[in-house]
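ok trying this again, last paste got cut off
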Amino acid sequence: MTRLYVKAPLAILANNAGGGLVVEDGRIAELVPSGGAPAAPVDETFDASNHVVLPGLINTHHHFYQTLTRAHPDAIDKELFPWLKSLYPIWARLDPESFRLSVRLALTELLMSGCTTAADHHYLFPDGLDDAIDIEAEEAQALGMRVMLTRGSMDLSEKDGGLPPDLVVQDKETILADAERLIGRYHDGSEGAMTQIALAPCSPFSVTKALMTESAALAEKHDCRLHTHLGETEDENAYCRELFGCRPVEYLEEVGWLGPRTWLAHGIHFTTEECTKLGRHKVGVCHCPAFNAVLASGFCPINELKAAGAPVGLGVDGSASNDASNLMEQVRHAVMIGRLNYRSASAVTARDAFQLATEGSAACLGRSDIGRIAVGRQADFALFTLDELRFSGAHDPIAALVLCGAHSADRVMVKGEWRVRDGQPIGMDIARLRFEHGEAAKRFT
């Protein structure tokens, strides 16, 4: 087993590690204090004196397929419900080839932004795309990224009072059978896992109560996690009151989802009492600041949720509502939008935002082996330089990444292996990917 010494970083987001860290067997073996040296011999040294070292960033909500419909003229400048109704018929054209390219591009973008673990919420299974989650698992393995692949689902179409058209929904039996198959094939609950599966009925306006309750039971049976959109818009609140006679958080409790197995996307329209309830039950929330701004959905009460005890993470959301797959940019958005929401320059600091994207996100995914630079944790890191003009004159290197607008990592390590060097993903032809993905996207005009 090779011992790698990441030596004397310019700055590092960790305690008592000013001298760097040692990686062995895919884990952090040692933290080196400032002015110190490794306690045991090393086989290789990487000089990090020009780098800011962060824990690998963790994306807790995405829709990889949406990279094919960025800035789409049928959807721009619309709020959530009309945005979805415009795009559902277009997304129904998804096929395995274009889907694979959308996944490859999204994962590559994320990795280049310093993201080492990504959760994707895929809920569209038009005819011919039954193996969508299998495709995602293959692409993540090829790129060397950790993934939480959520088997999304919709079984409530327009004819039944739901939002999506009939051609993009499946029946409950098909959904649950495929979920069991995927858990059996891919879900790894062990420390250091590279691929995990979660169950993810899409939203209150696209799934039945029966699918929600049976998904919860299946997750309990197989000890995997649950994910859904909730508290996203006032339209959703009105929909839940009309269809279920309650608000979204009450609905969540009725269907057996109010517990630490669950993490939610968005969580914008929660009352103070609902934040308290979610915190008491340790329900996680993924904050998606760019999505919330682009679709004018509102502000996530991140500080109230954290104060109540709810894990709060960070996500880029779909690349048709962001419209990028860059998690470092989301860290900056979290600071700017958080300060605007709370009308306070100290309400959300750069380090607060990094906590969302690392430890907070890890907690949402139920993982204690990633998200922090500490002995025994997985060796997942993102290394950034401050060489660009935007950073000249910056005095706090960690804050500078956020306030000066870093967007791409110079090096990225996952499980002790370099996956990005000199800003380029290892083994990936970026020019070819851009061309092939761009050609595929033309089918969705």
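PB: full thing came through this time. Residues 96-112 form the longest helix (17 residues).
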